[in-house]
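Appendix B. Raw example, untouched.
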Amino acid sequence: MEASTPGRARRGRAAGAPLSRAAVVLLLSAFVRPASPAAGYFIRLPRGFRLTQDSLKIVGSSDYPVKVYVLLHQKSPHVLCVTQRLRNSELIDPSFQWYGPKGKIISGNSTIQLTSTGSLVFQNFEESMTGVYTCFLEYKPTVDEGAANLQLKYVIYAYREPRFYYQFTARYHAAPCNSIYNISFEKKLLQILRKLVLELSCEVSLLKSECHHVKMQKAGLQNELFFTFSVSSLDTEKVPKPCIDHSCEPSRRLLKAKNLIERFFNQQIEVLGRRAEPLPEIYYIEGTLQMVWVNRCFPGYGINTLKHPKCPECCA
């Protein structure tokens, strides 16, 4: 987990979108109740080492198995059945045979392609395809020489990009902890936040919501809601309209979503500051918004720079 400096909600006018301002007013107006007498007033984006370009070709080594990393559900690079030296040499009557974790690989498979020059290409790499692949090459260095044999091993890993998301925490002055108003407020707040980032193909998930009694400095107790929620980009396959524009990268969409959420909380402070009426019973406490940037692999995957030095940020 990579933590950024906590973001603080600040006083001051922020240029907000109409949706955000309307959402703030709706949120506050839905829970305006007379306060009881005792009441007071989420770095640089790491990237996996992608090896999915059609032009990329991986050569083997006669000394050690070569590691290859393929992004899950994507096309692999061309894995060649030659070493770097042989790739630049003339081979007479070459023949190639590939064996994988499940035995001999036959050309014509819908998910695995064997080219006429012995290259192995995966069309849609799945987790189950991870394993050791061995190529047997037989060729003549010259017409007059006898056949030479070579065995090359590759260890091919499926990897995923780390799951990046922002984790926010915020505190609200609350109704009594057993009040149904707190539950209704939580639902309304989540509804507004989700609508706020929907067009960015991002989603908001509630991680934790708790009500506590807080002893104020030189004052009595007050009820406070502690919200923890995450903002993440939807997986590519879940996005209704696939986007290939640079601005549609998950990191850019997430940054826009973060800015919208921070603006939303700032606008709550502005709206409260302009109120002539008494404060509502449930309202955002200025300065309590905090954010951390989370970089985490999916279950079953992990980052291991010692085992995968050529793919240090891959969840393999």
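End of appendix B.
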